[in-house]
Design brief:
Layout (H helix, E strand, L loop, with lengths): L13 H20 L3 E2 L5 E3 H8 L1 H6 L2 E4 L3 E5 L4 H9 L6 E10 L11 E10 L4 H16 L5 E6 H9 L5 H9 L4 H13 L6 H12 L1 H10 L9 H16 L5 H11 L2 E3 H11 L6 H17 L8 E3 L13 E6 L10 E5 L1 H7 L7 E6 L1 H10 L2
Parallel strand pairs: 1-5
Antiparallel strand pairs: 2-4, 3-4, 5-6, 6-12, 7-10, 8-9, 10-11, 11-12
Helix pairs in contact: 1-16, 5-14, 6-14, 9-10, 9-11, 10-11, 13-14
GO cellular component, one term: cytoplasm
Keywords: Glycosyltransferase, Plasmid, Transferase
GO biological process, one term: histidyl-tRNA aminoacylation
Length: about 375
């Protein structure tokens, strides 16, 4: 129907549109009361750098077009990264922003998920106390969704990152595991591979690895004997790949203790206070985990000061690993109970790294969240 929009069959005219406008106005008033300045990033954004920040899922679903002047552009798939881009273009000063507008994401055939929907959001750039900033954003979103009632999920991407960074293994392995933090299945496959050591090589592979141990020249000679390369890779690419394989083959496997410890961290789930206690118990054997636990504890204390029963908040170290790849710290989601047909009503987290990338290294700590007005109305009974 032409009158339908995300989750609302009558959201484009009449009473349905009026209700949506009233809801977005309510949300924006709350953001203004929190000191936010309204911002409106362009709908068309440069695709080259931004798609890398979003990660695989959004890359596959972004609407991309070729502009004869501006080059490859995309319809914004969210607001956070465009807001960061706008802010960092004018320096890294503390700021608070609010926004509301449409975003676009392509969906698989047969999917019931909308390809256009509204996001209203609040972004906080502040070099002060990160725990207080995290708590403020979470409390603000909880209050906005509160009348509906919600299921809460929280996590912290910094925990797993800290454990990976502390592994006693080659830098290229830590980097590979880091790249796959947001892809749980690929991460686990890598972990198993690195823990099992190098697989038995075929005769051809063994010959190539033996040549790689002697250096690039030996690999080049071996390739030249085989004739012209078949496929898209040239001899230089094949040589580089062989040298990487040789480096991997020469790297000792992760110990069973390291793999088991990572598995233990990944399995932590429960009320926040109990989860933190469990992580504290694992910290003596994991460099970097103590600092990550300290940050979680500081955030729980900040949430408690805002009247939230922080110790009881559901927490999982794996939460957030299938969402946007720019989150690097606290993450949370607020969902409607009994409504699996709806996305999270609100979600957000910390994304310090994005500001450094878009600021040319001059970043500023940042945390933010979005709320979906259409989904919120649907959860309140505005649509079936």
């Amino acid at each position: 129907m032409l009158t339908a929009r995300a989750y609302l069959p009558d959201g484009r005219l009449g009473a349905g549109l009026a209700r949506l406008e009233a809801e977005t106005a309510r949300i924006l008033r709350a953001f203004a009361a929190a000191g936010a300045e309204v911002v409106e990033p362009e709908a068309l954004q440069p695709a080259d750098v931004l798609l890398d920040l979003y990660g695989e899922d959004i890359r596959a679903r972004a609407y991309v077009t070729q502009d004869p002047v501006a080059g490859e552009m995309m319809l914004r798939p969210d607001f956070t990264v465009p807001v960061v881009r706008l802010h960092m273009a004018h320096g890294a000063a503390p700021a608070r922003y609010a926004y509301c507008g449409p975003v676009w994401r392509a969906q698989e055939p047969g999917s019931a998920r909308p390809n256009e929907y509204l996001q209203a959001g609040f972004e906080l750039f502040d070099a002060g106390d990160p725990a207080e900033a995290d708590a403020e954003v979470f409390a603000l979103m909880s209050a906005l969704v509160g009348e509906t009632g919600c299921e809460i999920a929280t996590g912290d991407m910094g925990i797993l990152a800290a454990v990976v960074d502390g592994l006693e293994t080659a830098p290229h392995r830590r980097a590979a595991l880091r790249r796959h933090l947001w892809r749980p299945e690929a991460f686990r496959r890598l972990l198993r591979r690195f823990g099992a050591g190098h697989e038995d090589a075929t005769a051809a592979r063994a010959t190539l690895l033996a040549a790689a141990e002697r250096g690039a020249e030996a690999v080049g000679e071996l390739i030249s004997w085989a004739g012209e390369p078949v496929g898209l890779r040239d001899a230089e690419d094949i040589t580089a790949r062989a040298l990487r394989l040789a480096e991997e083959a020469a790297t000792p496997p992760l110990t069973a203790t390291q793999v088991a410890a990572l598995d233990e961290v990944l399995s932590v789930s429960g009320p926040s206070q109990a989860a933190l206690a469990r992580l504290r118990g694992l910290a003596p054997d994991m460099p970097g985990l103590t600092g990550a636990c300290d940050r979680v504890e500081a955030r729980l204390e900040a949430l408690s000061r805002r009247g939230i029963d922080a110790g009881a908040l559901p927490f999982s170290t794996s939460f957030g690993r299938t969402t946007l790849e720019y989150y690097d710290g606290f993450v949370f989601g607020l969902s409607a109970p009994g409504r699996p047909d709806l996305p999270p009503l609100a979600q957000g987290g910390r994304y310090d790294h994005v500001t450094a990338v878009l600021g040319g290294g001059a970043g500023i700590p940042a945390v933010g969240a979005i709320i979906r007005p259409e989904a919120l109305i649907a959860a309140q009974g505005g649509a079936a």
